[in-house]
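Dear Dr. V.,

Thank you for agreeing to look over these. As mentioned in my earlier message, I'm a first-year student in the group and I'm still getting used to reading structure tokens, so any feedback on how I've presented them would be very welcome. I ran two proteins. I've put each sequence directly above its structure. The first is here:
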Amino acid sequence: MHFAPVVVPVMALATSLLHASATGAPPTKPVEGTALTVYSSADPRGFDPQRWIQQQRQGNDNPWGVPGYGVVKVVRRVTMPQGSGTLSFTDVAAWIDPTTVSFVDLEDAATTVIEQSFQFDLVSPSKLTERYIGREVMISSPIGGEFKVFQGTLLSATQNQLVVQTGDGIHIVAATGAQITLGELPGGLLTKPTLLWKIANATAGEHLIRTTYQTAGITWRADYNLVLDGSESAADMSAWVTLLNLSGASYLNADLKLVAGDVQRIESNERGAGSGGMQPPAPRMAMDNGGFEEKSFFEYHLYALPRKTDVMQNATQQIALFPPVVGFKVKKELVFDFTGGMSAFGEPMLDRAFQMAAKGNPSVFVQFENKKNEGLGMPLPSGKVRVYKLDPADETLEFIGEDLIEHTPRNETVRIKLGEAFDVVGERTRTDFQIDTTAKRMSETFRIEIRNQKATVQSVQVLECMFRWTNWKIEKANAKFEKKNASTVLFEAEVPPEGKKIFDYTVVYTW
């Protein structure tokens, strides 16, 4: 039997009384029910809830790899023994961590738990047959197209074979297809995971108690659907939370909260640890017409469902994160990055043969401001954003790309990469290179030609990295540019329909 330490009694009650004295109001008496807070470290890129459900169907019920956990809070009325006695607490999660259990008697603060055990030896066909070794059984086995009955003492149940001693000898019967009739349920086997507490209590009778514990096997992720309008300058967005519950318990009529952020936990090597992004605090934001209510909580974000829900075991379910947002502004961007986002070398790159000549298509991005005046302004948990556009020919939505977003606070920019443009082409050519190692000076000239084969004007951006060295200066350029950081400049242009735009610039490096 496994015994675990328990966090017991008065601190929670004392905290409640302190709060009541500070506000002048009596403490609110808890009501019976279940509350569930789910923490997630799921990576939206690789986490697929359906994979875990499929594993569960195949008999693999180990949830340690599920990237998240839950904190379960139960207020329940129980019959308390007087003096020293045992209290059974059933319907806990099968994957509970017993070391996290806390117990408070809300009727009598003097009640204490002096010992705890977690009973998890649940009924299963294999355990039942193991417990019946040496006892009377009846086995009906299909043999030669008929069922033959063997009644006697079960001697063994291993390697998919049953060995039974009957009045006419010992028989070895294949377990596959066999039906076994047993007597009563053997002692020690349970139908539900159970906490057993040894209680020291002065007052017998009905008591309201509250217990809290952590369980593995439960997590959540966010999914967003973005629909662009015909002008590609506005969009609608809906957001969903997908819950995965493999914790071994259902939480009926429960208060549900979700936490976004990296809450540190010390995990054993066998379980592994997840990670997420920690976010700065933000004021509470209640969304009208359904969805979760969001608020800052410590250094994380807490999303509370303002209604009760059922979180069923071995299931996934979707809940609206917030009501659909209609008609907020978006901006489409076509971005060339011929240098692939590289940065300056740690020492001067003097190799004449090294150049970043390239030809290709620009990446397509959609970006918007997560601001309240745009109908948004709610901190967005990390997740996958799928983008669609309406085809006016048949009024259907067509998928045009998807991307991942990190935890995004309010008032920040959300930028989604959709793919590459088809009808806009760019070509980057080096037209000159000069180097004087004595003077410690080199110059490089590039021509960038953007061709637009569409019938409409296209706005394009060209990112250029001065990768040869950190000390550089653009001496000549036929277009304005913006210095984005220590090694990157940005050119912007409107490319006419079925036309082109050419950028020429010369950069000088000294060292």
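The second protein is here, in the same arrangement:
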Amino acid sequence: MENENIAVGLDIGTTKIVAMVGKNDTYNKIEVLGLGRAKSLGVHRGVVNNITQTIQSIQQAIDQAEATSGKKIEKVDVGIAGQHIRSLHHSDYITRSYPDRVIDENDIERLINQVYKLVMLPGEEIIHVLPQDYKVDGQAEIKTPTGMYGGRLEANFHVVVGQVSSIRNIGRCIKSAGLELSSITLEPLASANAVLSQEEKEAGVALIDIGGGTTDLAIFKDGIIRHTAVIPFGGGVITEDIKEGCSIIEKQAELLKTKFGSAWPGENKDNEIVSIPGLRGRDPKEITLKNLSKIIHARIVEIVEQVFLEIKNYGFEDNKKKLIAGIVLTGGGAQLKHIKQLVEYITGMDTRIGYPNEHLSSSSDVELSSPIYATAVGLLMNGLNEYDKKDKKDKIESQQETVKDATVSNEGPKKTVFDKWIEKFRDFLENAE
């Protein structure tokens, strides 16, 4: 994989594990070269709870992706979600020693570095530090302070925090599957990259990613991430409810949900019935679609109301925080019939289903534009973006080398905070043998 910039997005979900191999084509769209999919057995609500099974599922997905793409996979860009994720707001500042020099990337990096040193609750670690807006010498609402003069640089940050043990368990699984961790990204951020347009992020939008074990929320306004949350319910609890309510096995409940399920009970007639084969030697079961919809409706309403509560906590009713673009639904749960209408009914906000097809090349398989693959496409995009940044950095550095500018210190490529974090994380895995 050295000669061309190929990235692999690995989405470790509660119901499935997806490995997507791809590269950028000439039009800067993503050409998917291979896809691997495996049933996720060792993950519960986004958190690894059985290392051995998770390793097997990852290996299965990777083997399939290698077979379909013809490429050897060594590094993966992984998504992290789960009920242990929380976010907080934090403000911090640095005082610059030379206010007569313009603010550059190093100052911003110093400020972000400072936030990474924040003391968290025992057992928690910072995953992302996302700057919201900056202040230079008291002048507020600055989006990019680079190139400005000033002595005091302040910023508001959105900090995403997760449990150290959960993050390390994912790292352990990846290492044991014979892979290297390229980066870790919060899954709602990856999905947002795949399905939201820049205009939506500017106007204000809430992305709701309904997965198998969790429902993830990411709110954007003025092009910046403002709020993230992970709700510990997803499509899995709906299947569980159908299984209990209709006294059938899980496989049949899942099939019923995907084939005949609807989030809106009013549309089914009383006489619409599905017959399900009974277990060995028993009579088949008859289930009315109206009852099925009622079960699904009750649970979906609960999930949507919890998400809506998070949107209210963000303060979307405030004029400055208005979400003009409304809601975008993605993930496997977004395929449920009439879910768009139900979400609009509960929240009173414009809603659309988000498909990750905008960033895929025209030659891509139609199946890949399903909302199920939103996170995998987003992770793949992140991986490819990292390569692009690295290429640009290397080019700039090689130019600086040739110029041999006296002011530039030749200490090799500059590491970002995230590179350092990943390195620290890799060291930890090495020593944890």
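From my reading of the second output: The chain has eleven helices and 18 strands. Confidence is low (pLDDT under 50) at residues 406-412. Does that match how you would interpret it?

Kind regards,
E.
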